[in-house]
Amino acid sequence: MNLQSYLENLRAKPDHIKKRYAFWSSLSFTAVVFAFWISSFSSWGSEASQNVAKTVDKVGTPAQSMIAGVGSFFVDIKDMIFGAKKIRYTSIEVVPGK
Fold it and tell me: Residues 6 or more apart from 80 whose CB is under 8 A from it?
Protein backbone atom coordinates (compact mmCIF):
# COMPACT_ATOMS: atom_id res chain seq x y z
CA MET A 1 0.00 0.00 0.00
CA ASN A 2 1.54 3.29 -1.03
CA LEU A 3 1.09 6.61 0.73
CA GLN A 4 -1.34 8.05 -1.81
CA SER A 5 -3.79 5.15 -1.54
CA TYR A 6 -3.46 5.21 2.25
CA LEU A 7 -4.39 8.90 2.33
CA GLU A 8 -7.32 8.33 -0.04
CA ASN A 9 -8.54 5.55 2.24
CA LEU A 10 -8.19 7.84 5.26
CA ARG A 11 -10.13 10.65 3.53
CA ALA A 12 -13.05 8.28 3.03
CA LYS A 13 -13.35 7.56 6.76
CA PRO A 14 -15.73 9.45 9.09
CA ASP A 15 -14.62 12.65 10.81
CA HIS A 16 -14.20 11.11 14.25
CA ILE A 17 -11.76 8.55 12.81
CA LYS A 18 -9.79 11.26 10.98
CA LYS A 19 -9.58 13.28 14.20
CA ARG A 20 -8.28 10.21 16.04
CA TYR A 21 -5.56 9.73 13.43
CA ALA A 22 -4.66 13.43 13.61
CA PHE A 23 -4.46 13.32 17.41
CA TRP A 24 -2.22 10.25 17.57
CA SER A 25 -0.01 11.49 14.73
CA SER A 26 0.55 14.85 16.42
CA LEU A 27 1.11 13.18 19.78
CA SER A 28 3.72 10.85 18.26
CA PHE A 29 5.52 13.73 16.54
CA THR A 30 5.51 15.73 19.78
CA ALA A 31 6.90 12.74 21.68
CA VAL A 32 9.78 12.41 19.20
CA VAL A 33 10.60 16.13 19.51
CA PHE A 34 10.39 15.87 23.31
CA ALA A 35 12.73 12.85 23.31
CA PHE A 36 15.32 14.75 21.27
CA TRP A 37 14.96 17.73 23.61
CA ILE A 38 15.47 15.57 26.72
CA SER A 39 18.46 13.79 25.16
CA SER A 40 20.11 17.15 24.50
CA PHE A 41 20.47 17.70 28.26
CA SER A 42 22.76 14.69 28.61
CA SER A 43 25.35 16.38 26.37
CA TRP A 44 25.60 19.33 28.77
CA GLY A 45 28.23 17.72 30.99
CA SER A 46 31.23 19.31 32.67
CA GLU A 47 33.30 18.93 29.52
CA ALA A 48 30.75 20.86 27.51
CA SER A 49 30.62 23.67 30.07
CA GLN A 50 34.43 23.85 30.07
CA ASN A 51 34.40 24.14 26.28
CA VAL A 52 31.84 26.92 26.49
CA ALA A 53 33.94 28.76 29.10
CA LYS A 54 37.05 28.50 26.89
CA THR A 55 35.08 29.78 23.90
CA VAL A 56 33.71 32.73 25.86
CA ASP A 57 37.25 33.67 26.91
CA LYS A 58 38.41 33.65 23.29
CA VAL A 59 35.51 35.66 21.87
CA GLY A 60 35.84 39.42 21.69
CA THR A 61 32.85 41.04 19.96
CA PRO A 62 29.14 40.15 20.01
CA ALA A 63 29.28 39.11 16.34
CA GLN A 64 32.12 36.70 17.07
CA SER A 65 30.17 35.37 20.04
CA MET A 66 27.13 34.70 17.89
CA ILE A 67 29.22 32.92 15.25
CA ALA A 68 30.87 30.78 17.93
CA GLY A 69 27.47 29.88 19.37
CA VAL A 70 26.11 28.84 15.99
CA GLY A 71 29.25 26.80 15.36
CA SER A 72 28.98 24.96 18.66
CA PHE A 73 25.28 24.33 17.97
CA PHE A 74 26.11 22.58 14.72
CA VAL A 75 28.87 20.55 16.40
CA ASP A 76 26.37 19.43 19.07
CA ILE A 77 23.82 18.47 16.39
CA LYS A 78 26.50 16.53 14.49
CA ASP A 79 27.53 14.68 17.66
CA MET A 80 23.90 13.89 18.45
CA ILE A 81 23.28 12.43 14.99
CA PHE A 82 26.56 10.64 14.32
CA GLY A 83 27.45 9.63 17.87
CA ALA A 84 30.33 10.44 20.14
CA LYS A 85 33.77 11.44 18.96
CA LYS A 86 35.78 8.48 17.83
CA ILE A 87 39.37 7.77 18.83
CA ARG A 88 41.79 6.91 16.04
CA TYR A 89 45.10 5.25 16.75
CA THR A 90 47.91 6.12 14.38
CA SER A 91 50.42 3.52 15.53
CA ILE A 92 50.27 0.03 16.97
CA GLU A 93 52.85 -1.36 19.37
CA VAL A 94 53.18 -5.13 19.58
CA VAL A 95 54.57 -6.41 22.87
CA PRO A 96 55.52 -10.09 23.22
CA GLY A 97 53.70 -12.08 25.89
CA LYS A 98 55.41 -13.30 29.05
Answer: 36, 39, 40, 43
